[in-house]
Amino acid sequence: MQMPRFLSSLEQHKGVCSAFIGRIQGVELTLNKDEVLDRLQPAHEQEVSHLGFCWDQLHLAEQVHGSKIVIVTAEDARKTWPEVDGLMTSDVGVLLGIYVADCGAVYLHDPVRRVVALLHSGKKGTEGDITGKAIQLMQDQYGSSPADIQVVLSPCIKPPFYEIDFGEDIRQQALSAGILEEHYMDANICTASNVGDYYSYRQEKGKTGRMLALLGMV
Questions:
Q1: pTM of this prediction exceeds 0.70
Q2: Which residues have CB under 8 Å from 60's CB, separation 6+?
Q3: Average pLDDT of the residues in 3-18
């Protein structure tokens, strides 16, 4: 699968691996999320392998529409972390994953301190300033400078298909936390208006799949 152009700012740094897996054609969709994820898993596993990881190295967030972030290490067994919407690591060999279907996946990378984070930020996560909290956590735990951190926002739902432009709110929160304008990248793609390439929970009335955002270091 070809790397999306909006991730090129991350991929220019040696050792950083990222992906955003959009709609997988030919997969039957239902209202049951777990059932659909099982059907999508073979294609998702293939992309994980393409990045140089195995499925057992993948860490996922439970995604409860909150703003809690957990730090993952290489010693942690592969798992879905309960009650969190953000994952962060400074260890190589750890792959972070977030599922989305209208909400934004926020990628963060500090190339100086060698730290990455991946967040699930929709309406509620954005209201909880999960992006600002992740930037602060990078500073507190790793001594990161906001001026060094790159932030990338994945495709997500945008007006007029959604009444709130949480994508713009994420951008403002990142800049307020000290991210440089030139280090912020918005894919600027609306999932709801591009259902041929992406899943949209709102546009497809829940009968949809999930995109998978991936970020790690090798």
A1: yes
A2: 79, 80, 81, 87, 97, 98, 99
A3: 90
